[in-house]
Amino acid sequence: MKEIDPETAERVARGGGPGPSRLMSRQLSVYYSNCVMAATSPRDISLYFGRYVPTPDDKGGQQLSELYERQIYMTIEQAKDLARMLNQTIMDLEKGTGPKKAT
Question: Torsions phi, psi of 66, nearest 5?
Fold first, then answer.
């Protein structure tokens, strides 16, 4: 494996690596989702993110229903990378090697 020179290592650590930079939009909004649904085409995967909301049922009471409000499209390759990243993050958290939980 090729060694990275210290200047490149520092730039990568700051987020300015040899690949595309990572920037966060100033208009980024947070959305909490506790349900997700996936749909596929031959080339893409679409993830629908939603939350459970109370809705009236047939008997005049209430029930919980899934309300999908956000949709994200990605390529199959991006979906594979996302699945790999999520699996690794979950394993690290379960082992206690991930980010520390707030106390």
Answer: -85, 125
The answer to the question of residue 17 being in a domain is no
Average pLDDT of the chain is 85
pTM over 0.90: no
Nearest to 37 by CA among 63, 65, 71: 71
| Helix, strand or coil, per DSSP, at residue 92 | helix
Long-range pairs of 29-35 with CB within 8 A, sequence gap ≥ 24: 31/69, 31/70, 33/70, 35/66, 35/68
Q: Give the chain's domain count.
A: 1
pLDDT tens for each residue of 52-72: 999 999 999 999 999 999 999
